[in-house]
Amino acid sequence: MLDLRAQHATIRSEVLAAVERVVDSQMFVLGPEVAELECELAGYCAAPYAVACASGTDALILAMRALGIGPGDEVITVPFSFYATASCIALTGARPVFTDIEPDTFNMDQRALERTLERHPRTKAILPVHLFGACADMDAINELADGRGIPVVEDAAQAIGAEWNGRRAGSLGRIGCFSFFPTKNLGGGGDGGLLTTADRTIAERLRSLRVHGSKQRYFHEELGMNSRLDALQAAILRAKLPYLDQWTAARQSHAARFAELLAGVPVILPAAAPGCTRHVFNQFTIRAPRRDELKQYLAEQGIQSETYYPLPLHLQQCFENLGYRAGDFPVSEAASRDCLSLPAYPELPAEDLETVAAAIRSFYS
Ligand SMILES: Cc1ncc(COP(=O)(O)O)c(C=O)c1O
Hints:
Layout: H1 4-25, H2 31-44, E1 49-53, H3 56-66, E2 74-77, H4 84-90, E3 95-98, H5 110-119, E4 123-127, H6 138-146, E5 153-155, E6 163-164, E7 167-168, E8 175-179, E9 193-197, H7 200-209, E10 214-216, E11 219-220, H8 231-240, H9 244-261, E12 276-278, E13 284-287, H10 291-300, H11 330-338, E14 339-342, H12 350-364
Parallel strand pairs: 2-3, 2-4, 5-8
Antiparallel strand pairs: 1-9, 6-7, 6-12, 8-9, 10-11, 13-14
Helix pairs in contact: 1-8, 2-8, 3-4, 3-7, 9-12
The structure holds pyridoxal-5'-phosphate.
The site of pyridoxal-5'-phosphate (PLP) has 15 residues, from α3 and α4.
């Protein structure tokens, strides 16, 4: 699915020099490397402020905390996503309220959102996900949110560099949340995360919340977390950032090639909404009839594929208390049954794309 060694081989000397720089500096937590990374990523994401933290999950939790979300509050999100999209809400004591996705883009459905908002007039935030690297319809979501004075938090964990009508993910809502988990388009040498915002007060609160709710050491204004980014991670990410656009271009070209190679095969290719002017393809995800059989068939030929996500969030055991049932979100449930992500990382050799496509074609022939 992902050969990180292939990427590392191309940037080994830069990454090792970055690690050496940090080790020589003996400044391991936050510090100038993290401040520089924040500056570079604020520029990349076209957001006035960027605040680094320990993971994408923490970024989401910090975003909820910075908006004052807690017990008694409701936050609307989608059930077809990674666990952290909803756990960040529940971990604050608030209640995740799910709304279904669109079948073609896998992102939040604005008509469903409108209905959900009508049923939940006291919603405190809306949390759309830019799933697989394609932006959710941020015009429609922002319009519904703005009219009600509700902040929108973007889960942009999989979408660094993605654009909606030419505007970057992370600059489209009140707060943007990113992950640097190694499988992400910009992946560190471990966990890492980032928040972006145009709101200075929120940025300051996030900076305090990530260091124990403290602006001045040993004085704590509110209950915060330890969610500092390590300088080693920041240095590695800074070494990789100059390559991100070329890696994204390779992902896009693999997606285009897959579309050619899979023409006429009875699978549905990924489609972004028309407003998504830059899809960064963190995953290349098809909808495949007899998905599990196809996955098994590919595995028998040494081809890895991945099921993101086999069980939607509203049916997860940890959210049983929310009272949702099978059938509540049919589009998400269908996506969980038939989505399959194929290898499409930047360094994937062209022959491998052909091998994967040929194997899929032969499965359906
Ligand atoms: C959509 C989404 N949200 C949140 C996260 C959480 O990020 P992290 O793994 O860095 O905590 C991920 C990572 O897998 C993700 O894909």
